[in-house]
Fold this sequence. Notes:
This protein is 54% helix and 10% strand. It has 173 residues and is mostly helical. Helix 3 (68-80) runs antiparallel to helix 4. The radius of gyration is 15 Å and the shape is globular.
Amino acid sequence: MSKCPDARDCLRDLVVPAMEQLVDKVNFTLSFIGSVDSNDSVHCKHGSTECLGNMLALCAINLYPQDPVIYLGFSNCLISSYSKIPSRELVEPCALEHGIPFEDLNACVSEEGKGLDLLTDSIERSEAVGVKRSCTVRVDNKIWCVRDGGQWKDCPGGSDVNSLVQEVKRLYG
């Protein structure tokens, strides 16, 4: 997802603006698609550098699990320049901008299996709920809208920020 233009558009145009309005109403989970082979090797659609970017985003979540403003802001910063992932010249300023110590992110990704375990768990979570496209937005345990091939698809409730905010408020007050 971290190197996916659909995910970039989805975060920038829908998820982050909606979360700014809903941060106190939802339990937001960022999950990634990919595959895990029989040797427990992880594969991401856009290659190994995408896997590293995904691990960086998951490590930010792991470091600040109660603060989606921090980890979504960091993820949005990374994905906004996805061609540069995982260069330190991108990651370090994004971390600084969102108050995440770069050393902590680096340690999480580099730590014996930590970042890889987070990514493996995330991929398995996505597979378990039937998510196959980046970006798939789920609300109330159901697929609400999908961004794929540069277009919004399967969005009966709408694909704009206001529609998402209203749906969450309708469900959760």
